[in-house]
Design a protein that fits this description.
Number of helices: 3
Structural class: alpha+beta
Radius of gyration: 15 Å
Helix content: 25-40%
């Protein structure tokens, strides 16, 4: 059976964060997606330190589907360099993993 991962991205627009989260689940790229409360993001742009409001979207998916999810998210993300971090979900129960595998299984059209 496949392993589980979580993948994270951030967006500056709340509506876009909701749209990407919902769309990834609808497209079966992710079994679940959480939009976290507004936060402040700090990063450099050239030599300048910037801060802006943002929303983290955390996707629950399988190791088998995470590459497809990455392409799917990056195709819809407004940034030229979308943040993308993937972490293994160690200690996942077999029942939860089986659910995620079912939810992200490719469907025949």
């Amino acid at each position: 059976m496949a392993g589980m991962v979580t993948a994270h991205t951030t967006l500056n627009d709340e509506a876009q964060a909701y749209e990407i989260a919902q769309g990834a689940v609808e497209a079966r790229m992710a079994a679940a997606a959480d939009v976290e409360a507004r936060m402040t993001l700090f990063h450099r742009s050239g030599d300048a330190l910037r801060h802006e409001r943002g929303y983290r979207v955390t996707f629950t998916t399988t190791a088998e589907r995470v590459a497809d999810l990455e392409v799917w998210v990056h195709d819809r993300h407004p940034s030229d360099l979308p943040p993308w971090i993937v972490l293994p979900a160690a200690g996942t129960t077999q029942a939860y993993l089986a659910w995620a595998v079912r939810e992200t299984a490719r469907r025949e059209s």
